[in-house]
Amino acid sequence: MATTTAQRTLMDSVFDGPTGYAGVEATPEWAQEVRRLARERNATILAHNYQLPEIQDVADHVGDSLALSRIAAEAEEGTIVFCGVHFMAETAKILSPAKTVLIPDQRAGCSLADSISADELRAWKAEHPGAMVVSYVNTTAEVKALTDICCTSSNAVDVVESIDPDREVLFLPDQFLGAHVKRETGRENMHIWAGECHVHAGINGDELTEQARTHPDAELFVHPECGCATSALYLAGEGAFPAERVHILSTGGMIDAAKASHSNQVLVATEIGMLHQLRKAAPGIDFQAVNDRASCKYMKMITPAALLRCLVEGADEVHVDLAMAEAGRASVQRMIAIGNSGGGE
Ligand code: SF4
Predict the structure, then answer these.
(1) Less Cβ around it within 10 Å: N or C end of the chain?
(2) Minimum-distance ligand 1 atom for the alpha carbon of 294
(3) Closest C-alpha to ligand 1, atom 3
(4) Average pLDDT for the chain
């Protein structure tokens, strides 16, 4: 691929810093170069809702991980640049094995996905022979390959209800989503892995109750797709916020609800990246984060410098072993077939 002067100048500034690739600002020149390089590579750029605003703005599509994986599978382009965390890019590769999937920084992991390894799951399965394994989508390809049915926060209850009531269920890795599903289904023979996402640590019951008291007219939007707000989902069910003001919504549902809302203020329980899309959709509403520290450091590793480097160098490429991809695909497809797995388009 020919290297232009603009590309060289921008690329010369990229360096690998303590929190990922840095050295490039999101200027109009950068955005133009990113778009040009994407065309040259026949690539489509997908950005998760929790990405930096400048990454969302330069992308072809913005959405949640499942919606983006579906877009990846249907895209005409042969290369997918997935601006999100590693398990999401892996899921896109599982659903589109013939495509080249790139992630701007493969070190962008996920504390929830990392809370269970394939070996730990094998050992857990051995303790409960015959149990059905239900995994939230925030898992590695290796764990998905050992899973019977994947689920999103939108269809987790339907997925568990679809399983023979006499069969044990192993639910992983998110303990808050697991507790929510157990409460909703009343299922006793369900075991829950004690995993969690570091981002939701600040969204606790006291904080939510306090927010309800100090913002008596505000509505609460909870988008638990990524694990960062599953604790809010659980707490809302416990009554920490008045039920009539709580809306548990997918990404698309959240944008529609924002456009239709007559409230002056909406509190948002999710990773703060989501605020960018909401403020664009309904500029008249004051959107406030329930916890403004709820920022995912892994998502924020996809910087302007990382995206530029990715498009220039064709790195980092995501590989999933073919047999593993096939097994993982089966668990993801079972998820898509049950209930509303849409989770947020
Ligand atoms: S917000 Fe939490 S669950 Fe989502 S990618 Fe970050 S660490 Fe993982």
Answers:
(1) N
(2) 1
(3) 227
(4) 90
Is 197 assigned to a binding site? Answer: yes
- Domain residues for the domain of 51 are 1-109+298-322
69 and 17 inside one domain: yes
**Residue 208 Cβ contacting ligand 1 at under 6 Å:** no
Q: 62 pairs with which residues across the strands?
A: 47
Strand, helix or coil for residue 181: helix
296 is in an annotated binding site: yes
Q: Hey, what are 27's tokens?
A: 């200027």
Cα dihedral across residues 45, 88, 18, 300: positive or negative: positive
User: Using the 8-state DSSP alphabet, how is residue 113 labeled?
Assistant: G
* Structure letter (DSSP) for residue 43: E
What single string gives the DSSP state of each residue in 295-339?
Answer: --TTGGG--HHHHHHHHHHT-PBP---HHHHHHHHHHHHHHHHSS
Do 272 and 209 belong together in one domain? Answer: yes
Ligand 1: nearest atom to the Cα of 111 = 7
- This prediction's pTM: 0.90
The atom number, within ligand 1, closest to the CA of 297 reads: 6
- Ligand 1 centre to CA of 143 (Å) is 17
Q: Are 219 and 263 in contact (CB under 8 A)?
A: yes
Cα 247 to Cα 88, 107, 114: the distances in Å are 25, 34, 29
Last residue of a domain, one of 293, 312, 334: 293
* Ligand 1 centroid – CA 165 distance (Å): 31
pLDDT tens digits, one per residue of 20-30: 999 999 999 99
Residue of 152, 193, 199, 272 best suited for mutating to test ligand 1, as the one with most atoms within 8 Å of CB = 199
Range in 113-122, 234-243, 260-269 the model is least confident about: 234-243
In a domain, 133, yes or no: yes
**Count, residues in the chain:** 345
Q: Scan for tokens 């999401």, then name that residue.
A: 88
